[in-house]
Write a structure and sequence with these properties.
alpha/beta, globular, 2 domains, TIM Barrel, single chain
Length: 325
């Protein structure tokens, strides 16, 4: 077991916060955020001392029809620059690339010509070699890189260890993320999982990150549990905006962290002026169907469709999914 890292009264200077509001939130509204909204969030993150902001995906338009999504599904260089200019701030810009859904050779330019700082590769446990190839490609282009292992709650310990060993040996990967895609993990399990990731992080010199979903209202609890076990890259979204039940709330995380470089007030002002308006037209956050899929360690797509249809027969949903298991 890894030793506990820090305590509730202190702060670890190695901790960094990643705002994933646009990227994960884009899965709720097909990435149709206005430039004004994104610009205000960018300015808020700068004022709040947030370390990274993820603008969206580098999705291939060979696979996804650009007419059916907002621009942050594709994160073209000119669109990001329209928001940040040359980004003369301390905030780093991130994008995500899914294994099998990104044309890196065409859509990822050399870092020296880009305002983007980080490319995070999203993968399931069965596509780790492809993810490593993608991360190494981006590393050679000059970017910071991360491999985010999705649906970690469904992977066996032996598979995770093999994946961590493969990723650890790659010089082209800077960060390794555990992603609780289904919101199925409990804090005790997060502790054990983080200890395993931390073990390989220490062995190979990799930074460990956590990305939690809130199906069982445990995203914040799991994030700070991961902090106590050595995770230093922390994902959060404002008002938990994200696919399904959403993510660890940025306002809760910034309120918890003791590092004086983080400021809560700009985030609260953004909630007041922007997020309350967004809630009038966009539905996200914890709901009973997400709890059910989280309990059963299942992808939330069934819950998402259930809510869209306005169905409230929770008992039948539970029984149907339970027997499907």
């Amino acid at each position: 077991m890894a030793p506990k890292q820090g305590n509730i009264m202190s702060y670890r200077p190695d901790i960094k916060v990643m705002d994933a509001t646009i990227r994960d939130g884009g899965l709720v509204n097909d990435f149709y955020f206005t430039d004004e909204f994104v610009k205000k969030l960018y300015e808020t993150n700068v004022k709040a001392g947030v370390d990274y902001m993820e603008f969206g995906y580098k999705a291939s338009n060979d696979i996804f029809d650009e007419s059916k999504f907002g621009k942050w599904k594709f994160c073209k260089e000119e669109d990001i620059r329209a928001i940040v200019g040359d980004n003369d701030t301390g905030l780093k810009i991130s994008v995500m690339a899914d294994v099998g859904r990104t044309n890196l050779e065409r859509d990822v330019i050399d870092k020296k010509d880009s305002v983007i700082d980080v490319v995070r590769v999203a993968t399931y446990i069965n596509t780790i070699p492809a993810a490593i190839d993608m991360a190494e490609y981006c590393h050679n282009k000059g970017y910071e890189t991360s491999i985010n292992i999705m649906a970690i709650s469904t992977a066996s310990e032996s598979d995770v260890r093999q994946a961590l060993d493969l990723i650890g040996k790659s010089e082209g990967v800077d960060m390794i993320y555990m992603v609780d895609s289904y919101g199925a993990i409990y804090p005790e399990e997060m502790r054990e999982l983080c200890d395993m990731f931390y073990e390989y992080g220490q062995k190979y010199g990799k930074i460990i990150g956590v990305h939690a979903h809130d199906n069982q209202k445990l995203a914040f609890a799991n994030t700070i549990e991961a902090v106590s076990r050595g995770a230093s890259m922390l994902d959060a979204t404002v008002c938990s905006l994200g696919r399904g039940a959403g993510n660890c709330a940025m306002e809760a995380l910034i309120g918890f962290l003791k590092n004086p470089r983080y400021r809560l007030d700009p985030i609260l002002r953004f909630i007041q002026t922007e997020m309350l308006k967004l809630r009038e037209t966009t539905v996200w956050g914890y709901d009973v169907p997400y709890l059910i899929t989280g309990l059963l360690n299942m992808h939330p797509r069934t819950a998402i469709n259930f809510i869209k249809e306005g169905d409230t027969d929770y008992s039948t949903l539970f029984q149907e999914l339970w027997t499907r298991e």
